[in-house]
Amino acid sequence: MELETLCREAKAAKYEVQKLSTAQKDEALQRIAALLTEKAADIIAANDLDMKNAQEKGMSPALQDRLRLSEARIAAMSEGLLQVAALPDPVGEVLEHFERPNGLKLDKVRVPLGVIGIIYESRPNVTADAFALTFKSGNAVILKGGSDAIHSNTAITAVIREGLKQAGITEHAISLIGSTDRETTRAFMQMRDYVDVLIPRGSAGLIRSVVENSRIPVIETGAGNCHIYIDAAADAEIAKQIIVNAKTQRLGVCNACESLVVHEKVMETVFPAVAKALKEKEVELRADEKALAACDLCVPADEADFAAEYLDLMISVKTVKDIDEAIAHINRYSTHHSEAIITADEKNAEKFLKEIDSACVYVNASTRFTDGFEFGFGAEIGISTQMLHARGPMGLKELTTYKYQIHGNGQVRG
Amino acid sequence: MELETLCREAKAAKYEVQKLSTAQKDEALQRIAALLTEKAADIIAANDLDMKNAQEKGMSPALQDRLRLSEARIAAMSEGLLQVAALPDPVGEVLEHFERPNGLKLDKVRVPLGVIGIIYESRPNVTADAFALTFKSGNAVILKGGSDAIHSNTAITAVIREGLKQAGITEHAISLIGSTDRETTRAFMQMRDYVDVLIPRGSAGLIRSVVENSRIPVIETGAGNCHIYIDAAADAEIAKQIIVNAKTQRLGVCNACESLVVHEKVMETVFPAVAKALKEKEVELRADEKALAACDLCVPADEADFAAEYLDLMISVKTVKDIDEAIAHINRYSTHHSEAIITADEKNAEKFLKEIDSACVYVNASTRFTDGFEFGFGAEIGISTQMLHARGPMGLKELTTYKYQIHGNGQVRG
Fold first, then answer.
1. ipTM for the predicted complex
2. pTM of the predicted model, to two decimals?
3. Cβ pair A293, A345 in contact under 8 A
């Protein structure tokens, strides 16, 4: 079976990629970056086929824009590879060293995860991006992209493989699954013998489907029903600036604010100014009864609004009588991505930081900062919203695991 | 539905347990330790019911011994709780602190995983043990034990809950699933909305079933086809001592050695003495052709032997022409638990440490040291053989995750 062969080759390749030195990896990334620019015309020709299919299918202009590649976009892809090449190599870092009374010397050492599977949707730039991050962190990658971008992804993968070959590195360090049908995707998610980790990137529906069907361990990413809580001790101006930024600076992203939680004491003081600023940005406020009573800029919310990730010009508004109710509400409806409190009260700030069960918890800052680049990681493969392995922005380090290397001189257990 | 109610209560309890101070947790563990001794008669009475059923079912004497509780065993359980109480609390540790140019201050802080589900087989002491470890690390636990031990587990859980109640802590910090049928187990493995992590403890069959059927993220533990490689530069005496220890010191454990890999250069020098020492311990050596030719103490191996975790008086023997072939053989057949090289050659030792893809890799020491206590963790919930989250012995730290706590003063994203 072709898929199983591809997975077996990736598993064999992981042992080769793990052995590469930092210099070998960086040189290969630089070579591939140059080759992408050189071969831009080939990639654009392949992308034209995808664009033609998209137009025939009547794809929306927004999605067509995500799919389209130009010389400038390929140059950006190439630049991305160079940036990853310039990042420090996480592999080989000694995380801990300890010795036991019997003389055993233990090193806990950072090592690659192995074979990483990535299932994603239409943006073809993910192909180069995901390769760069997984390769620099010493992993082999198997990509399963969407049918809309299959010609673009195939062309980009071919260029990467050519670059690897020129650098004397196994081209199975990257594989693209050629079939984009559902059966292949399902079969891929069963390849536990070959694939160490699966990372879905894309819509909530895609991620749910992977979580529900995969037998390979999954890192769940992306869904963000992010809350901002306006505490009784909130500064009105800070609240307004942060909330407008978190809701409207970019709508379709997982770290955008989708839910406001408002202390009843500031419902008639701070909240109306926030609501007015949001309305000026054309945001619809879907509010509970108390907020509706306090501010005529809102429309009624129903239960589903409190759980919604709108990714659009809407926000839900919930009134609470104290910080405990705010925390309980957020922990109930949140997707455990990013939440913020606006407050001048240090005790409440610390309580919120401690008790909110999310990957990133902010005091007086926008949730939009949950991002690998904003955190200074220099790269990002996604934002984890699960508890195991990694939480929040995942950079190169989060694409590694560890092993214990133990030196003895004949020790046996008594 | 009763199971869902139980899971929902555990989820509510996790937010309470997360808030407990170290002193509150330690006091509760001490109180429960005392109560277990006090109520030993009740627990033994319940255990008698399980023992009676076991005898009627014709359970093997070895399994009956695992199931049996006595005052001494209950005292050991109680002592175990006191030991966990004395361990440092991992929760709240600041793993990293960094500041960004925009003034954001980030702390990466260790936090509990949340609700941990544990599916295990007949040993009732796991009930107290798993509670102690998950509780001390700030988690709520849901236990699903085997039907053989249901009365014992119910009695132990009742004592723990009474102790929690006396300490003023929610008794939903521990829950035992009352039904032990397969349908309940399957339903439990779908409770992703409530349970953050599932850890199976028990036979390879149990673990496989959980890995294949769970929609909750799983930490795979336990299976150990551990290899020892006798390098060309091996010291014969060290090889003999370590291999006899790793194979025979305790047979039924996951860190016992199941496979020998022998460099052809020492097949006629070092190996025969090792084989003789193993035969004296009644170990059957199942060997490939070259080993058979070199040593008349062996019987022929077939392909399945190289993948077997015997947990018994057998060991497989594979001849290799060099260290690269040894590494390739081990990476192919290993369960990625623990492997060792016996060598006086430092370069080969470092190559083996680097290229073997297992949680614990040893130079000149027995694989039997892969153990939370031997590593100095003071406790162990299992040995992870997967890549995500934790590898090797899992103590209290491995039952935690992290979150980012971020202090700002009005930062918005530009």
1. 0.95
2. 0.94
3. no
